[in-house]
Amino acid sequence: MFISILLPAFLAIHVSAAPGAKITGCTVSKDKLEAPSGLAAPTAPTARFVGLGVGVQNYTCSAGGTFTNVGAVAELFDISCLPAVAFDEVTDIVFDVWEKAPKQVTAQSIIGALAIFNPPIVLGQHFFITNPITGSGLSPKWDFTSASLKGHPNAFVVGARTGDVVAPNDPSTNIDWLSLSAAQGDLASQIFRVETRGGQPPTSCTPGTPDISVKYVSQYWFFGGSF
Ligand SMILES: *[C@@H]1O[C@H](CO)[C@@H](O)[C@H](O)[C@H]1NC(C)=O
Asked: What whole-number distance in Å separates Cα of residue 166 and Cα of residue 199?
């Protein structure tokens, strides 16, 4: 399997010591979000969930020959209970595998093959909906109602952006870091997209060419909320 080749010794050394069974629901008190200036400050001392988003950012080619973002789709895997020291390395590893994987390989199968996620817990899904407040434009949504919080109809959050900074490293490859507040839903009152890997489109395009999807991975930190 191509994945086993990419698994660095790091995982075996650091992460196999992590608790296997209990993932969602552990305290993330030691995991401090380093929100750069330009993003909102977290309003709670600790996050409720930390998820790794594995998916694609979609773009359409505008008449001006540049790509415009038209949403994203990602599967959110729970990393809340990994040792905080491992978060960024795990993000790198998953992106490395995801980026190199053939098109037909799903995020689920990649996560399922990495021992660190044993057993993998899907928190939920991230996607875009029509802005529920204005009725036009797109709003990001994180929805746990079909996965980790099944049976809780309000276990979702629709975000409104409160901050946006270019990625500290390699911003031409990595999408911006964001802070958002809840416009709807009880899952969280604040959401942060940080430690982004990938997702940026090429700098130019030929108008009329098909939409593209660019693979990305990022950490999503959820604060507040009712769960
Ligand atoms: C993004 O593209 C993927 C295919 O790569 C597709 O499955 C998904 O529905 C698209 N989502 C949006 C919001 O455009």
From this structure: 12
Tell me whether the omega of the peptide bond preceding residue 119 falls within 30 degrees of 0, making it cis.
yes
Q: What is the pLDDT of residues 133-157, one digit of tens each?
A: 999 999 999 999 999 899 999 999 9
**CA–centroid distance, residue 70 to ligand 1 (Å):** 9
Q: Give CA–CA dist 182/199, Å, rounded.
A: 23
Ligand 1 nearest atom to the CA of residue 72, by list position: 13
Burial of 153 (0-12, 13-18, 19+ CB in 10 A): exposed
pLDDT for 77-117, tens place per residue? 999 888 878 899 999 999 999 999 999 999 999 999 988 88
Q: How far is the CA of 26 from the centre of ligand 1 (A)?
A: 32
